[in-house]
Amino acid sequence: MTRALMTAAALLTWGCITGSNEGAVDGGAGEACTPGRTVSCACDDGATGVATCQPNGVFEACACGQPPDDDGGAGGGDGGRLPTDAGPRDDAALATDGEPPIACEDGTEETRPCGQGGEQTRVCAATTWGPWGVCAGECEDGARQRRPCGVNGRGEESRACEDTAWTPWTGCADPDVCADDSEETGACGLNGRGARTRACAEGQWGAWSACEDPDACVDGATRPRLCGRNENGVAQDVCAVGAWTEVECDDPDVCDAGADESRACGVGGAGTQTRGCMDGQWSAWGPCDDPTRECEDRSIEEVPCGLNRRGRQSHTCEGGAWGEWTACEDPDACVDGATRSRPCGVAGVERQTCREGAWGDFGACDDAAVCEDGAEERAACGLNGRGSQDRACAGGFWGAFGPCDDPDVCVDLEQQVEACDGGERGRACIGGAWTDWSECMRGEMCPDGSAPPCEMGGNVCPEPRVAEAEIHALPLDVVTLDGRGSVDEDGPNGGPVAWSWVVISRPDGSTAQPVERFFNPARPADGGPEDAADTPEAQFFVDLAGVYEIELRVTDAGGLTAPSEACPARGARVRIVATPNEDLHVQLVWHTPGDGDETDQEGSDVDIHLLHPEGRAFSVAPYDCYFANIEPDWGPNGEAGNPSLDIDDVNGAGPENINLDGPEDTAQFGTGYRVGVHYYRAENFLMGGVWGPSMATVRIFARGVMAGEFERELAATDHFWTVASIHWEDGAARVEPINDYVATGPPMNVP
Which secondary-structure segment (H or E) carries 184? Predict the structure, then answer.
């Protein structure tokens, strides 16, 4: 209701007054309103009419000739009342609606028109009019009215006619949520300081626009940032008011990588020395480049030296130049951690370790079985070594030799003398049998009954002698055999003229022979020319772990050889004991019957493999050690934990050895190191054809003691044998056979 309606006069003149039925809405015509609303209005003749709000939201002109309803309106509208210019009624003051009371007679009723053709009644009580009743008769029951509403007028509200009177208007059913073409703005962004907008179209809000955010980060957030001279430092930037604030860099570096600097040095500062920046730190100053002097007179420089760098040696500056280094004063006798061994027991080894530069005591004898139960061995025996005796292996050790079956009755060169007719006669033992007695002679005689000087066929037997009767070595060592001490009493210069070295026994699979020299000293396994008879020395390649026995035989200028049947004394022998000093030593040898000479430059090619517990495929780096990956880097135990293949023999019978001095504890992996053998090539490329099957033998040594030996035939090229696994736990080895064999090359999925 407009302010003009709110200030309408309190007194109105009711009833129809003759005159014009049309009049203007006083202070209301043309005014904005709610469509359908009806109000009272003043007619030209002073009477009261009714004005209705049109659908366009504007009151129509005043319709005269209709009385107002009980609210001062017409037709049950919004109860508004428009003022008129009519004077006060003749009746007494009104009794209701804030009008002055009008005296009346009790029980009297009074009616008046209302609404749109309706009528309402009031009753007098206690000489005062009561309130007007309901406006009845203004509409027909069941009738309905509708009118637009809402923020854009697209809604609707309605009312119904009940008991000939209109009910109040219902609430507005408005489909719209906003006024068309209006806009609103909302906060957004990382910290809510940004803004976005949306517009209203057809009563609905559209999508939000992109956020215009002035911030680059969330307040209080942090981020790491590389910084410093070489970006080795780290700064933790902080976000404040939407922007990153860089904090001071925690830089460990003191110089720029690649930079260098110089300073004066030497006597009088005539020289220059420089240093460079490495990994952000200055290196030590380099040597002084002094064009005149190296050092200051009488200054002394001392450096560590010796086996464990605990020794000291020094030199002194004289005349601006450094003198010679003194001899190293080394308190140590051995390298810390080094070990050495010596044989003990039947075939055992006892070791001592170097600690703080001194050899410790030898440990307990690690004596392993030396033979296979049931095996038999025959040995020479008897007076001259021409007899034989047998022994058998039981419990891993050889039993005592049986009785000697000796064809001889005397010791060669032994002599017997007996008295005879005024003199003596003698006889000698030749070839294990006594000669006939000599004639009775007076004076000395030879064992064979001849006159002095005594000779064997006129020639004294030479005597072989060796420089060392026993040599301890590592597998793959080269040993010098020395027979220069041999003698021959009647020979030129008191010595023999020919020397021959003969291998009496060796480890199974060994093919090494004494040679004059090696074709390639860096590859002694390739052999060399046959040992020359006119030199007392020979070279011998210790190709396998085990025990070797080599005999020296010498010949004098008269062609007499010792030892021989003519000179039956036992010859001089060299015993070589080859013991690995690594924690693990894996050895491969093979025998190919189709190869007539396994020591020449043609032959089959068989390869040894050692797979790390984390490896899952043979012949794939880095976890397989073999000919294409001879020194892999296996990590945590440093160089000691990295294996190495020492020989790749491509044309013979081996050996091939893999050594590992610092194995990892395999309990952490759930599996061990695995050993494999690959028949890489059975073909004879030079002569054509194939070498045929090859018998491979694998021996596994743990700290010098053989922990396992395996043998299997490899049938053809590319056949692969997974031999065994080596479990290294608490510093000890445990070898388990696997014995898987495939004809399809190295397995690519090893469990």
Answer: strand 183-188
Query: What pLDDT, on the 0 to 100 scale, is given for residue 27?
Result: 38
Contact 525, 457 (CB under 8 A): no
The DSSP bridge partners found for residue 736 are 725
Residue-level pLDDT at 57: 66
What is the β-pairing status of strands 311-318 and 300-305? antiparallel
* pLDDT at residue 100, rounded to an integer: 55
**Cβ–Cβ < 8 Å for 131, 114:** no
CB-CB contact of 407 with 387 (8 Å)? yes
Q: Is the pTM of this model over 0.85?
A: no
CA angle 156, 160, 162 (to 5 degrees): 165
Residue 266, pLDDT score: 67
Please tell me what DSSP assigns to residue 51: E
Query: CA–CA separation, 707 vs 384, rounded Å?
Result: 39
Contact 701, 648 (CB under 8 A): no
Residue 525 neighbours by CB under 8 Å, 6+ apart: 541, 543, 647, 649, 655
- Type and span of the H or E element at 6: helix 3-6
Cβ within 8 Å of residue 688, ≥6 positions away: none
How far apart are the C-alpha atoms of 525 and 179, rounded to whole Å?
A: 101
**Torsions phi, psi for 605 (to 5 deg):** -125, 110
Distance between CA 144 and CA 36 in Å, rounded? 12
C-alpha distances in angstroms, 484 versus 162, 516, 538, 567?
148, 15, 11, 19
* Alpha helices for 214-352 (secondary structure H): none
Angle value at C-alpha 156, between 152 and 159, nearest 5 degrees: 145
**Model pLDDT, residue 686:** 64
pLDDT at 658: 94
Task: For residues 274 and 675, give the distance between their C-alpha atoms in angstroms, rounded to a whole number.
Answer: 52
Would you state the pLDDT for residue 511?
Answer: 83
Residue 316 is encoded by which pair of tokens?
């002194």
534: left (phi over 0), alpha (psi -120 to 50) or beta: alpha
CA distance 618 to 680: 13
Q: How much is the CA Rg of the chain, to the nearest whole Å?
A: 63
Low pLDDT (below 50) residues in the chain:
1-31, 66-99, 446-457
CA 86 – CA 20 distance, rounded (Å): 14
